[in-house]
């Protein structure tokens, strides 16, 4: 017979597997089941879990891979919301008695909210711990998804969408920081590449799933699907993602004073832009985001009338092409980034320089993205090659974008390791400002000057980003050293990672 004592003993022994314990950024430790078992029996603090990992790199490999899958899946669920309504825009506009342009502006507002989410959640993370903030952000997104599905008018729909957006990029910032904490620098690029699978597939499969759903059911079902995805992500996070001790984190107890200090600390999201290497990396990501979201926002507007298509399902299926490109580019780009870094380390006699990995993305900036975008835009402009050529061009555009993003994302986690979260947050802030601009502007721009010239503008922006990255790869170290010298800072490397 299973007694209470036997049950508690079993639970206690399963704690390392279930991972219901954590060691948070402030240095406190706790175990969920330790707390539960001791409730009502003791007023003293619960014992420290012996299985706690103070360094993320000490985690076993299987645990790292499960964490990587979890944070990547959560990014997929969060970014799914940013594009899932593209094929359903006319249907939503009709139900709420508004225009498609109004819905597109709402989508742009969601992207702006996503870019700003770290300004809200990072102080919470510094006050309550990163794990608590991460799970709370997921929980808020869960309830906002339900609220969007139950919206009764345009005001409620807009409010729920934008509130959901405010949880968006914190999942990416925290996820990318977690990966930087648990993988050493030799494998970090590959890990970030796999992490990006979630963040890049979300915007790509969102319209695909949305198109399928809106063809056969109500657009509200899109958000019930999203609710299920976010709920699963929350379950996985609670089960498998611990907090990792941070060597640069403060050790104060939660308080209003700490909350205020944390908000001031988040100004580093902007003050770090004084470093040219950080600003160049962020701006390059923003220029890529314009191309990414202008590619994703326009297909139903472009494809359906040109090829006499009437179903949102077909325009939704079109997103398989850039989605597959995103997948290939993120994985291959991350791996190529690590290979480039390893080669440069050998050439430098064992010295590791973070900006060396940026060389891996130059071919994407200067060849793959420009060529595929020009083919995509001008062939659609003059009806050359049909739908098949547009699909192929969209695939290579997506692959090039993610190959370029991979090295930049990893670099942002390595450039100033003691300010890693702030650097990554600044990247997403600028990236989503450009993404929102591309999302809102691309359809009116196409109507005004044509898809050919609109694509050419995207190419110019991508090449400009490539120039920034080339400059950063060549002179990034000198840029950072110069500013550190002016500010009287000691330059800290990430070699221990």
Automatic annotation (TrEMBL):
GO terms for cellular component: plasma membrane. Residues 67-477 form the Major facilitator superfamily (MFS) profile domain. Coiled coil: none annotated. This is MFS general substrate transporter. It is a multi-pass membrane protein. It holds the Pfam family MFS_1. It comes from the Eukaryota. The chain crosses the membrane at residues 65-88, 108-124, 136-156, 162-180, 192-217, 223-245, 266-293, 313-337, 358-378, 384-408, 429-446, 452-473. The keyword rRNA-binding does not apply. GO terms for molecular function: transmembrane transporter activity. The lineage of its organism: Eukaryota, Fungi, Dikarya, Ascomycota, Pezizomycotina. PANTHER family: MAJOR FACILITATOR SUPERFAMILY (PTHR23502), MAJOR FACILITATOR SUPERFAMILY (MFS) PROFILE DOMAIN-CONTAINING PROTEIN-RELATED (PTHR23502:SF152). SUPFAM superfamilies: MFS general substrate transporter. Gene3D superfamilies: MFS general substrate transporter like domains (1.20.1250.20). The keyword Membrane applies. Keywords: Membrane, Transmembrane, Transmembrane helix. It is found in: Membrane.
């Amino acid at each position: 017979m299973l007694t209470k004592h036997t049950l508690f003993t079993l639970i206690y022994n399963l704690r390392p597997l279930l991972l219901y314990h954590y060691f948070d950024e402030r240095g406190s430790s706790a175990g969920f089941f330790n707390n539960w078992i001791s409730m009502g029996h003791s007023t003293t603090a619960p014992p420290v879990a012996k299985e706690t990992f103070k360094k993320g790199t000490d985690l076993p490999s299987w645990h790292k891979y499960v964490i990587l899958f979890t944070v990547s899946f959560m990014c997929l669920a969060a970014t799914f919301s940013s594009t899932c309504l593209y094929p359903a825009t006319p249907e939503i506009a009709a139900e709420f008695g508004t225009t498609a342009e109004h819905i597109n502006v709402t989508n742009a507002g969601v992207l702006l909210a996503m870019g700003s989410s770290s300004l809200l959640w990072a102080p919470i993370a510094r006050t309550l711990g990163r794990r608590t903030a991460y799970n709370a952000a997921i929980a808020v997104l869960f309830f906002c998804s339900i609220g969007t599905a139950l919206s009764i008018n345009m005001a409620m729909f807009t409010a729920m969408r934008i509130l959901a957006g405010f949880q968006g990029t914190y999942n990416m910032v925290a996820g990318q920081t977690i990966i930087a904490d648990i993988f050493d620098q030799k494998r970090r690029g590959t890990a970030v590449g796999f992490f990006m699978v979630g963040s890049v597939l979300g915007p790509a499969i969102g319209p695909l799933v949305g198109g399928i759903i809106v063809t056969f059911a109500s657009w509200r079902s899109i958000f019930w699907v999203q609710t299920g995805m976010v709920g699963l992500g929350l379950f996985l996070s609670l089960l498998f993602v611990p907090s990792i001790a941070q060597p640069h984190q403060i050790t104060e107890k939660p308080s209003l004073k700490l909350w205020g200090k944390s908000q001031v600390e988040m100004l580093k999201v902007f003050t770090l832009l004084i470093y040219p290497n950080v600003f160049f990396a962020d701006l390059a990501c923003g220029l890529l985001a314009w191309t990414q979201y202008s590619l994703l926002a326009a297909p139903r507007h472009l494809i359906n009338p040109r090829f006499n298509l009437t179903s949102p399902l077909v325009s939704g299926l079109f997103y398989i092409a850039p989605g597959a490109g995103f997948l290939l580019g993120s994985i291959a780009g991350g791996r190529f980034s690590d290979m480039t870094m390893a080669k440069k380390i050998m050439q430098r006699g064992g010295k590791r320089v973070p900006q060396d990995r940026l060389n891996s993305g130059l071919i994407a900036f200067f060849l793959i993205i420009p060529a595929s975008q020009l083919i995509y835009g001008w062939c659609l402009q003059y009806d050359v090659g049909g739908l098949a050529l547009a699909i192929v061009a969209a695939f290579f555009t997506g692959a090039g974008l993610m190959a370029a993003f991979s090295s930049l994302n990893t670099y942002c986690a390595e450039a100033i390791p003691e300010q890693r979260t702030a650097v990554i947050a600044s990247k997403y802030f600028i990236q989503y400002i450009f993404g929102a601009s591309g999302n809102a502007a691309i359809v009116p721009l196409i109507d005004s000057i044509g898809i050919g010239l609109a694509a050419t503008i995207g190419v110019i922006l991508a090449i400009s980003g490539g120039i920034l990255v080339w400059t950063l790869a060549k002179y990034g170290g000198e840029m950072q050293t110069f500013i550190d010298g002016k500010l009287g800072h000691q330059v800290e490397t990430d070699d221990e990672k």
